[in-house]
Amino acid sequence: MKILVIGATGTIGKEIYNALKKNHEVYRAHRNSDTYPVDITNKNSIKSLFEKLPKLDAVINAAGTASWKSLSDLKEEDYYLGIKSKLMGQVNLVHIAKDYLKENGSITLTTGILAEHYEPNAVALSLVNGAIHSFVHAASNELNRGIRLNTVAPGAIAGDFPKDQKFAGYLPVEIEDVVKIYEHILTTKNTGQILKIY
Ligand SMILES: NC(=O)c1ccc[n+]([C@@H]2O[C@H](COP(=O)([O-])OP(=O)(O)OC[C@H]3O[C@@H](n4cnc5c(N)ncnc54)[C@H](OP(=O)(O)O)[C@@H]3O)[C@@H](O)[C@H]2O)c1
Q1: Beta bridge partners of 148
Q2: CB of 128 closer than 8 Å to CB of 87
Q3: Which of 29, 117, 118, 173 has the fewest CB atoms within 10 Å distance of its CB?
Q4: How many CB atoms lie within 10 A of CB 71?
Q5: What CATH class does 2-197 carry?
Q6: What is the distance between the alpha carbons of residues 34 and 82, in angstroms, rounded to a whole number?
Q7: Partners of 2 in the beta sheet?
Q8: Domain spans, the chain
Q9: Residues near ligand 1 (Cβ within 6 A)
Q10: pLDDT digits (tens, 9 = 90+) for 143-175
């Protein structure tokens, strides 16, 4: 398969890239890439990345951020960071990727445990993760040409967080197990799924 991984140097993205490149032709994109630079907050940047690449079987996004602040510290502008990056970055990616992928292509987004479990200072992330879950449920019904849309919702990744310390009420998860879910989605016919691992 020809697969694009966005955010491919991050904690999650680099492990997805390393696992997939063993058996697939994988393109590694992120903002500071020399070969495939992309900023998901900018629609033109996403489009020009797809213009550079051959027809793809799949795109996986593991990029996107939001503000880490308590409710009392969050200003309206702080919410827009996550709305522009993790939320609309991924929504715009779907809008653009659906026209560039091959028939039956796969789009996989990344959300996280915070969509449904509380962690201090993570209100703005909870907001965008929940919105993406609703978007995936609905938008997956309206994709043509057999294009599939799913999201992986991991807990905190062990290594980034201490293994024995709970995050949002759950212990961290091993990155190898998280990567297996991204790989599995490529081989199924599932769409509209929120694949939770925590
Ligand atoms: N790490 C965790 O424990 C964890 C758990 C659950 C969910 N998540 C979610 O998973 C996603 C990835 O997290 P991570 O910890 O792997 O992130 P990370 O280590 O900070 O890596 C982010 C990756 O995305 C790229 N990137 C950042 N902003 C970008 C943008 N606007 N456009 C394109 N690429 C961009 C970065 O490279 P450049 O700087 O070169 O762009 C890097 O490759 C996030 O949405 C996060 O909320 C993470």
Answers
A1: 106
A2: yes
A3: 118
A4: 9
A5: alpha beta
A6: 25
A7: 25
A8: 2-197
A9: 6-13, 30-32, 38-41, 62-65, 85-86, 89, 110, 112, 154, 156-157, 160
A10: 999 999 999 999 999 998 888 999 999 999 999
